[in-house]
Amino acid sequence: MAKHDPHETLLPDRDMDKSPAIECIGLGIDFGGLTAVDDFNFTLGRTEIAGLIGPNGAGKTTVFNLLTKVYQPTRGRMLLEGRDTKNMNTTQANRAGIARTFQNIRLFKDLTVLDNVLIGLHNEMDYHLASAIFRLPGYWRAEKIARGRALDLLSIFDMADMADNQAGSLPYGAQRRLEIVRALATNPTLLLLDEPAAGMNPSETSELMENIRKIRDTFQISILLIEHDMNLVMGICEGIAVLNYGKIIAKGTPEEIKSDPDVIEAYLGKKGH
Amino acid sequence: MIKGYKGIPMPVRYLINAGLFVVFLVVVSSLTDAKVISTYNNKIIMLIGINIILAVSLNLATGYLGQLPLGHAGFMAVGAYASAIFMKAVIKTLPLGLSLPLGLLIGGLVAAVFGFIIGIPALRLKGDYLAIITLGFGEIIRVILLNIDSVIGFKLTYGAAGLKSIPKTTTFLDTFICVFLVCFVIHAILKSRHGRAVLSIRENEIAAESCGINTTYYKTMAFVMSAFFAGVAGSLYAGYIGILDPTGFGFMKSIEILVMVVLGGMGSMIGSVISATVLTALPEFLREFDAYRMVVYSLLLVVVMIFKPTGLMGTYDFSLSRLLGKPWERLTSGGKSKKAGDR
């Protein structure tokens, strides 16, 4: 494992002796001649909540797509719990422990809330196709356990009573929460949230903050989120990386970021005089 | 507060469904024996059964997987020819009880192999492109069957002359046992993790992948299964009609099956069953109005598509247990309220 300059890592003290959840070394991607992300060095602790912020078009979602292997990086390496993720595809990345939500909600809209979570639990069940066709005991057992787990996961967000509703008919905020539940169902070690608070009102947002902390504490996983709501980012993130034009321009605690001149410049522009 | 299975317990549901099916078989069989249903009508009922299998199997690829294959008649043709050649070869040596299921299985398996071969490249494409490539495949099958009459010296398919004197082994009973099995298998798969994976691909492929679902595998699985059941339907058809003519498995046949699926509602099994029934029976019963029957048929399609674009049933699926759930609860809670408080 490559050694990092201590100023480059954001690991909280409690995660220092564990191998990081994810470690990006010089990650970069070009689309044709355009460099979308470059020299992305980033380490995330095993139980850390971190934020990735930056102006529109800075490459935040591209970073998520690199982490989840939607795109293969042009340069650099990415280690997941110390394991190189080279040549993995999205499915394998999920099985290796990365789960995500999407900026524009991607639920299975015509299916029920319960089915959405059960699809997340797909790899937690292991019965064979024949077992499903002949309805063998293994099928019933696995389905019953999965159903129970799905309802347990839904109850984190108090959504268990919506289990039979069609996912597409839920209110916007509930759809965002369901996406998080579905991602959690895949039993990840790293959860990526792409603008989880988008379209939520302040009370929903503060509830979401509570829930993100609760998820981290219960499941002991690391969470990386992209968010424009600075109250949420500054409120729950232990470490923040700021991205502009595909490059990390600052890393640090919320306090450090708030007073960083480069960050202020990226968001508000240069001072006139 | 985990909800158990509502209403009727599982074994009872199976018993009710199986019981109703047996009743249906017995009633139609005895009516045929008593000549209430004429041989002609019985033939139509068998054709309905075959078309139900075709529609339900195409629905697996169209309604549940969300792809648009236009070569379903190709798979049917492959299955029909494979099983017809097999049946002609073994009809004298093997007892019917053995050769018939084997013939169906061979028809299905050969079609499934073709489904696999065509599915691997085709499923890398989406939408229109997949439609075109499967359409091409269907035409290739038809043209090959039309032009090749001997395979490495063996006269097997007889080209344009058609494959004649196939043993007419398909009966009403076989057809509907197959219908039942096909519907049950598809239903059982849909209610499993495999079926949910297939549905998730229809709903949102990117999200399915990020949920750890191997989309290539499940696409291929659904496609191959769809081809398998089409092959079974083809086998039944071969034993039903007794002569196979390649021109019958053209593009129009694929479209005919697709129309059944779309009319019934993509993603609804009962929709496929109903529309396969109606669209098979209607042209037959309209024979008296010979000149107008295709007009009526087309008008029906236009009217349904205008007033119910999602098909007759949408994605709704009929469930007898859901229908009987309420009366059952009343019945059981009246006796002893065992699970009444559960829900």
From TrEMBL, chain A:
Any one annotated GO CC term: plasma membrane
Name of the featured protein: Amino acid/amide ABC transporter ATP-binding protein 1, HAAT family (TC 3.A.1.4.-)
Gene Ontology BP terms: D-alanine transmembrane transport; L-alanine transport; L-isoleucine import across plasma membrane; L-valine import across plasma membrane
Ranges of residues in domain ABC transporter: 11-270
Origin: domain of life: Bacteria
Organism, scientific name: Sporobacter termitidis DSM 10068
GO molecular function terms listed in the Swiss-Prot or TrEMBL record: ATP binding; ATP hydrolysis activity; L-isoleucine transmembrane transporter activity; L-phenylalanine transmembrane transporter activity; L-valine transmembrane transporter activity
InterPro entries (alphabetical): AAA+_ATPase (IPR003593), ABC_AA/LPS_Transport (IPR051120), ABC_transporter-like_ATP-bd (IPR003439), BCA_ABC_TP_C (IPR032823), P-loop_NTPase (IPR027417)
Alphabetical keyword list: ATP-binding, Nucleotide-binding, Transport
TrEMBL record, chain B:
Transmembrane intervals: 12-32, 44-64, 70-90, 102-123, 129-148, 169-190, 222-243, 255-282, 294-316
Major localization listed first in the record, in broad terms: membrane
Pfam name, any one: BPD_transp_2
InterPro entries: ABC_transp_permease, LivM-like
Compartment annotation: Cell membrane
Keyword Cell membrane appears in the UniProt entry: yes
Any single GO CC term annotated in Swiss-Prot or TrEMBL for this entry: plasma membrane
Bilayer topology annotation: Multi-pass membrane protein
CDD domains linked: TM_PBP1_LivM_like
Recorded GO MF terms: branched-chain amino acid transmembrane transporter activity
Key words, A-Z: Cell membrane, Membrane, Transmembrane, Transmembrane helix
KW Cell membrane (keyword) present: yes
This protein's name: Amino acid/amide ABC transporter membrane protein 2, HAAT family (TC 3.A.1.4.-)
Organism expressing this protein natively: Sporobacter termitidis DSM 10068
Taxonomic lineage: Bacteria, Bacillati, Bacillota, Clostridia, Eubacteriales
